[in-house]
Amino acid sequence: MPDKNKGPDPITLTLFANRFMGVAEAMGRMLQQTAISTNIKERLDFSCALFAPDGDLVANAPFIPIHLGAMSFAVKYQMKVHGKTLKPGDVLMSNSPSAGGSHLPDITIISPVFDESSGEIIFFTASRGHHADVGGILPGSMPPTSVSIFDEGAEITSFKIVNDGVFDQDGLRELLCEKPAKYPGSSGCRNIRDVESDLKAQVAANHKGIQLIHALIKEYGLQTVHEYMIHIRNNAEQSVRNLLRDFAKKHGNRLEARDYLDDGSPMNLRIEIDEASGSAVFDFEGTGPEIRGNLNAPISVVHSAVIYCMRSMLNVDIPLNAGCLVPIEIKIPDLCFLHPSRTAAVCAGNVLTSQRIVDVVLKAFSACAASQGCTNNLTFGMGGKDKDGKVQQGWGYYETIAGGSGAGPDWHGTSGIHTHITNTRIGDVEILERRYPVLLHEFSLRKGSGGVGEYNGGDGVIRDIEFLHEMQVSILSERRVLHPYGMAGGGPGACGQNIWIKQPREEYDLPALEIENEDERRPRMINIGGKATVLMGRGDHLVIHTPGGGGWGTPKEGGSELKEQCKHIARARNFNSTAVCDNAELRPVLLPNGEMPGPLFPATFRRLRTMGGQGLNDLTVMYQLVDHIPYILDDQQRFASGGLSVPFRAFPETLRDFEELTPRELDRLILRYQLVARKDLPEDIGARRTILARHLGITTYP
Question: Name one GO biological process term (predicted).
Answer without folding.
Answer: glutathione metabolic process
